Amino acid sequence: MLNDADRRILKVIQAEGRITNQELANRCGLSPSACFDRLKRLREQGYILGFHALLNPTKLDHALLVFIEVLMDRTTGDVFQEFATSVSVMPEILECHMVAGGFDYLIKVRVRDMEAYRAFLVDTLVHMPGVRETRTYAVLDEVKNSASLPL
């Protein structure tokens, strides 16, 4: 069970993952040793999954963000498993979510440009196990992009 001090720690490190333990302790009103122990416990209990750097996709030649609806030809466990296995090894696919509704998966992809996306779609995605139909939504402007959870 999380208490207020745990939530303060999570809120701060979610925004500033490289903060020192001393600064984190100061900002959360804890001693450095108590803060370190709590942080360690939060990692061990699975509240903190890891720390990542946010990279600028445009500077790294991955400016185009695309969302893709994927409709499967069959909705059986083996087809879902084969699709999930294929998705997991594709670096262009940043996220893949099985969803309820009018299609089966929502995929988030980052590529260089529309030409690179077309190649990904034609050469890779439509040949993946079970894929019957796709719908593409190219992002024109990222209005909000956050991985922070409301605490």
TrEMBL record:
Keywords: Activator, DNA-binding, Transcription, Transcription regulation
PROSITE patterns: HTH_ASNC_2
GO biological process per UniProt: regulation of DNA-templated transcription; response to amino acid
Entry-linked CDD domains: HTH_ARSR
Residue ranges constituting the HTH asnC-type domain according to the UniProt record: 2-63
Keyword field contains Transcription regulation: yes
Cross-referenced SUPFAM superfamilies: Dimeric alpha+beta barrel, Winged helix' DNA-binding domain
A GO term from the CC aspect: cytosol
Name of the featured protein: Leucine-responsive regulatory protein
Organism for this UniProt entry: Sphingopyxis granuli
